[in-house]
Design a protein that fits this description.
Blueprint: H1 3-11, E1 15-18, E2 23-27, H2 34-37, E3 43-49, E4 53-55, E5 60-65, E6 71-76, E7 81-88, E8 99-100, E9 107-108, E10 113-116, H3 119-124, E11 128-135, E12 144-146, E13 156-160
Length: about 160
């Protein structure tokens, strides 16, 4: 590990990721999607949403916005890269009922409104509204602890060391 990697590692210690949507946290392995549940994209968790708005879980920058408005990628100020994906297989809805409030390259602050989504329309179309939060650069951290007692936007969802 080079000097830059060691410095970056120290900067990333003890970072908190807050709930992006109100609801019940569920382990990845319980998701009905192999890509997420097998951890192929990284570590994280799902949330069974009680609300239809996704908020920024940390300060950072938007690095990707799905054309279908159901997902986005962001990077925290400390270098944690994440995907927030609303629903399972909701890409098939082609953005209908989804509204994106940010664009790629935009700086964000924790608690900022990012996406609204149609929970009832998702369910009526036969999809699950489970919102997935994945740390895509999980391998750069010592541990990613999901705190399953999170429920509200102001609750911590993950502790990253």
């Amino acid at each position: 590990m080079g000097l830059l990697d060691k410095l970056k590692s120290k900067l990333n210690r003890n970072q908190e990721i807050y709930m992006p949507v109100a609801g019940k946290v569920i382990p990845l392995k319980e998701l009905a999607d192999g890509v997420f549940s097998e951890g192929l994209l990284g570590l994280g968790a799902g949330i069974e949403p009680e609300d239809n708005v996704v908020y920024a879980p940390c300060d950072g920058k938007i690095i990707y916005v799905a054309e279908t408005k159901h997902a986005l990628g962001l990077e925290s100020k400390s270098g944690i890269e994440m995907i927030i994906h609303v629903g399972i297989d909701t890409v098939e809805m082609k953005g209908e009922g989804f509204e994106m409030f940010v664009k790629a390259g935009e700086s964000i602050t924790r608690g900022q409104k990012l996406i609204s989504f149609p929970i009832e329309a998702i369910k009526a179309a036969g999809y699950r509204s489970t919102t997935v939060v994945i740390v895509t650069n999980s391998d750069q951290f010592e541990s990613i602890q999901v705190l399953e007692e999170g429920k509200k936007i102001d609750d911590i969802m993950m502790q990253i060391v």
